[in-house]
Amino acid sequence: MATPCKVTGCKNETPPALAELQVCVLHFTLSIEGSCAEMRRETALGNAPHERQREIMRFITESGERLARVATSGLHLTDDLKARILSTFLTLMNLRENLDRANMRSSFGRTGQHR
Ligand SMILES: [Zn+2]
Question: Which residues on adjacent β-strands are paired with residue 4?
Fold first, then answer.
């Protein structure tokens, strides 16, 4: 029996790759996008604690892996959903890049000028 998506009002089914989270593909990508936007704000200033940065890194790899599994598990995805999955990958990659950049800036700031 298929598990429905846990988001209120959503009639989509949960694919096996997301059974643990009980969300459909659409809501999975939306939740990643939402978390990424939040983490991006958090890390933009480059002063997120080290432990938190590690957590964010972990979130990026775990979400990316799970998303890749969903995308390649043979589900019949609409073109719309495929495009959404790709743009979510891009969001994850950009967040990772932002994190690295913010890190670089803050360590330059701490250690003084590099000339
Ligand atoms: Zn849903």
Answer: 13
User: Domain boundaries in the chain?
Assistant: 24-107
**What is the DSSP track for 83-110?**
HHHHHHHHHHHHHHHHHHHHHHHHHHHH
The rounded distance, in Å, linking the Cα atoms of 85 and 23 is 14
Neighbours of ion ligand 1 (CB under 5 A): 5, 7, 10, 12, 24, 27
Maximum Cα–Cα distance across the chain = 64
Tens digits of per-residue pLDDT, 41-54? Answer: 998 877 888 899 99
Is this structure's pTM higher than 0.90? no
